[in-house]
Specification:
Structural class: mainly alpha
Distance between the termini: 35 Å
Strand order of the largest sheet: 1-2
Oligomer: single chain
Shape: globular
Order of helices and strands: HHHHEEHH
Mean pLDDT: 83
Radius of gyration: 16 Å
Largest sheet: 2 strands, antiparallel
């Protein structure tokens, strides 16, 4: 699994493909959860499995994708590896996203395309 899987140019869209790929990688809940955990410090796969509640193979696949994207890296430690954010700029991006979410309140969460539907709509 790589960040560019299924990423084709959209006719009439001038968004740079690398930026689209970056935000797609951040838009996947498991990968974002992994990045948020790594923003707190280095972690082994077993630590990430516990933090995000997914199978080891799934976490490893997401780490592979994030590594291919240049967002995380690892260093060996005994028989395992410790993963860490390879780009400190990612911390700035995540902090900016938190500020933007705080400023927009519930507007993003209520987006009909990407947000979560209110409880009464999901029960219909």
């Amino acid at each position: 699994m790589t960040m560019n899987d299924g990423l084709d140019a959209i006719p009439g869209c001038d968004a740079p493909p690398p930026a689209v790929a970056l935000f797609r990688s951040l838009g996947e809940p498991a990968r974002l959860a992994i990045l948020l955990r790594l923003a707190q410090g280095e972690a082994r796969v077993v630590d990430l499995v516990t933090a995000v509640g997914l199978a080891q193979s799934t976490v490893s696949a997401h780490l592979s994708c994030l590594r291919d994207c240049g967002l995380v890296d690892s260093r060996p430690e005994g028989r395992s590896s410790r993963y860490f954010l390879s780009r400190p700029e990612l911390l700035d991006l995540l902090a900016s996203a938190e500020q933007l979410l705080a400023a927009t309140g519930e507007a993003v969460a209520l987006c009909p395309t990407y947000g979560t539907a209110p409880a009464e709509e999901t029960s219909r």
